[in-house]
Amino acid sequence: SISGGCFNPAVALGIDSSSTGLGFGWFFPYLVFETWGACLAACLFRCCRPDDFDETVGNSETPLGACLISEFLGTFMLVLTVGLNVLAGSKAAVFSIAASLMCMIFSLGSVSGAHLNPAVTTAVLCSGRDLISGGKAAAYMVAQTCGGIAAALTYSLMNHGRTVSLQPSASSSTGEALMGEFIFTFLLSFVVLSVATVKTPLSQYFGLAIGSCVTAGGLAIGSLSGGSLNPAVSAGLAISDVTNSGPISYLPCYVAVEILAGAAAAGVFRTIHVAEYDKA
Question: Which CATH number fits the domain 64-276, given the four candidates 1.10.10.10, 1.20.1080.10, 3.90.1580.10, 3.90.190.20?
Fold first, then answer.
């Protein structure tokens, strides 16, 4: 609804050429920006995967800097997709958002784990097993939140300053909205723990399972709470909406409930997946 979504100079040239009678020339700025986008992608790929370019890194743990760039980038793309879909009034927003999350998980999962959500990071931390330290988890959450806020400001810039509010729907109470956020953030966090952090993860399609949680939650409670399921999404929506005098008062409630849901998911995971804690 903004650019036509070419993403490809060949597509842009074809469309521009086929409509020559209406004018020709948009191909050239599209070519420039699409090329810039590709160059930026290559630069970020190098930043996120230094082991592919430096033999000294080898099979050692991914540097923290690369992990934080990964978490920032993945959360940025997720929140940007959320905002653009909502502002465009897309009828398939939940599928687009879930697809964005899946793409980022498959792209960045082997770098940082692709949490892309402070609630998920909380779940991984609380699940134990030395998967992430407290300090690293805190750094992840900061990167994710910064990515969410940056994305929200970006989609606002792309839509003439319009923003998306973080608040329950007019037909729902605050309690109903927060209950929905808790239940489906719990679902998302629990599925992440169960398919991506276990000893034998679903390596080929765990991204599909996780993305499907967003589809389920978005369709189920989107009309109640907006279906954030992610403190970084909540922060991005609420903070960017301040520029239009939107409410920020719901942000602490959303964040607290979502973080609590991540911790609860870890508790249930510990109870059910006993074998994951078997020292043998």
Answer: 1.20.1080.10
Calpha distance 151→129 (Å, rounded): 32
Token pair listed for 222: 């989107």
Token reading at 38 = 């590709």
Q: At what angle do helices 134-158 and 118-126 cross, to 10 degrees?
A: 170
CA distances from 111 to 45, 118, 162 (A): 10, 17, 34
Nearest residue to 139 via CA among 62, 71, 46: 71
Residues 256, 259, 263, CA angle at the centre, nearest 5°? 130
Whether the CB-CB separation of 129 and 196 falls below 8 Å is answered with: no
Q: Is the model's pLDDT at 58 over the cut of 70?
A: no
Q: How many CB atoms lie within 10 A of CB 56?
A: 7
pTM over 0.70, yes/no:
yes
Domain boundaries, the chain: 1-48, 64-276
Give 162-184 pLDDT, tens digit per residue: 999 999 999 999 999 999 999 99
Q: pLDDT tens across 91-132, in order?
A: 999 999 999 999 999 999 999 999 999 999 999 999 999 999
